[in-house]
Amino acid sequence: MAKIYYDADAKALEGKTVAIIGYGSQGHAHAQNLRESGVKVVVGQRPGGENYDLAKKHGFEPVSAAEAAKAGDVVNILLPDEVQADVYKADILPNLKSGAILMCSHGFNIHFGLIQPPKGVDLLLVAPKGPGHLVRSEFVAGGGVPCLIATRKGDAKAADDDMADESSSVFKIGMAYAKGIGGTRGGVIRTTFAEETETDLFGEQAVLCGGVSELVKAGFETLVEAGYQPEMAYFECLHELKLIVDLFYQGGLSYMRYSVSNTAEYGDYKSGPRVVTPETKAEMKRILDDIQSGRFARDWMLENKAGAPMFKATRRREQAHPIEQVGKELRRMMSWIDEKEVG
Ligand code: NDP
Ligand code: MG
Ligand code: MG
User: Fold this and answer.
1) Which residues are catalytic, by number?
2) Where on this chain does substrate bind (predicted)?
3) CATH of 4-191, one of 3.40.50.720, 3.40.50.170, 3.30.2270.10, 3.40.220.10
4) What spacing in Å lies between the alpha carbon of 269 and ligand 3's midpoint?
């Protein structure tokens, strides 16, 4: 079982400046929570967009990534994963103070070696297990989103990835940071860069984003192809998923099964294993192999270098799926839904 920490010595960050690079989902939450915890924060955010204006509105004086890196004793890169390495090489690396700590909230770039710290710079990961708006709203409400913590000595190799050394100064700074954003109120789980990165990628690919989207589409298509109305298929295969997931969230699989009818529970046991078969699990294992070997990361970075043609074409095609068309119409009938539209 994982080791979980609920408190930290906040002194570890005393007198230090934390540079938050990027004022997006995570950045805006970390910067404000840390400031309200008494930590000195410098925001690095490029001008010209909504996030720059938001940082100003929140009372920060945003500077360039280079300026922020210069000022930071702790430098957290909170940019999209696919742009981190370029910004790091151009703006952060040349300006890092010696003895600074380089931070992230997802280990992708560090684990796959796309960001390599200079000598004497230790690595730290503090990753809230929730989106930035929740990290902020929970903090304001007096709570906190649980976090993961990982550390690595600057000169260690990914292959030597080890659980964070609790006695190290970088670990203490990481715990003070987690406390500053509210994470210790929820609990902080010790992990490694490898474990955080690989489990995160696997979860989003096999289950949360890839797995669920394909499952929903396949169910919708099966009903529509059999002659049922698309509106009915939408309700049964997409809309009602929220009710089920809310039950999972509150009490796991057992509570969902307790709450639905016995007929639904019997059908779950009888048919679920016909949908997710041993072959599905074997494919999941192959997906995990691609993540562990670095093949997935390499493909994603190459895709970006080429201007993301496959990514953009797939996004367009997926947005045109009939389930998206019928969904748009139906959501307009449900005034309580905070309706969002993309594409
Ligand atoms: P966002 O996409 O919300 O924020 C992006 C930020 O990066 C914005 O400030 C944006 O500025 C800036 N940015 C984007 N492109 C560039 C560029 N080319 N050059 C300079 N700045 C740029 O990111 P997230 O907060 O979602 O993610 C940050 C990190 O946190 C990632 O490592 C992610 O994996 C991790 N994470 C995210 C979670 C989440 O739920 N979102 C949860 C846990 C971890 P502009 O407005 O000008 O484009
Ligand atoms: Mg992820
Ligand atoms: Mg039903």
Assistant:
1) 106
2) 261
3) 3.40.50.720
4) 16
